[in-house]
Specification:
With about 120 residues, this protein is an alpha+beta fold. About 45% of the residues lie in helices and about 15% in strands. It has one domain: Zincin-like (2-Layer Sandwich), CATH 3.30.2010.20. The chain has six helices and three strands; from the N terminus they run ααβαββααα. About 20% of the residues are buried.
């Protein structure tokens, strides 16, 4: 489902993701929950981990890969609570986390989704 959702995201985002590693995990790990101050691992649907493109430098390359995590159980829980279309939800989380890779704000990402007809 994540792969299908990825194929539908705006090309302006998708075309620049070759260096991102995409991971689907059941939950964020304990360190992520602690670092983000989460009350519950269900509080996080996705996460971008890396240095966004506005901060990258060829003179100081990051030794760690950029990673987008999708957290399966929190996404499913959110889906059950809201009744939102599951594929739409997965696509939204992907766009949001890839947007962080570009250094986009939440408002920028919402505008991008709205312009793409996914609101």
């Amino acid at each position: 489902m994540a792969g299908r959702a990825f194929e539908t995201i705006p090309d302006v985002l998708r075309s620049k993701t070759a260096t991102i590693l995409f991971m689907v995990e059941d939950f964020p790990d304990e360190e992520t929950c602690r670092d983000m101050g989460l009350e519950s691992p269900f509080d996080l649907l996705g996460l971008y981990q890396g240095v966004d493109l506005t901060q990258k430098s060829v003179a100081d390359p990051s030794p760690e890969p950029d990673i987008v995590f999708l957290y399966r159980r929190p996404i499913l829980d959110f889906w059950c609570e809201t009744g939102e279309d599951l594929e739409h939800l997965v696509r939204h989380v992907l766009i949001h986390e890839i947007g962080h890779h570009f250094g986009l704000s939440d408002d920028d990402m919402e505008a991008l989704e709205a312009a793409d007809g996914d609101d």
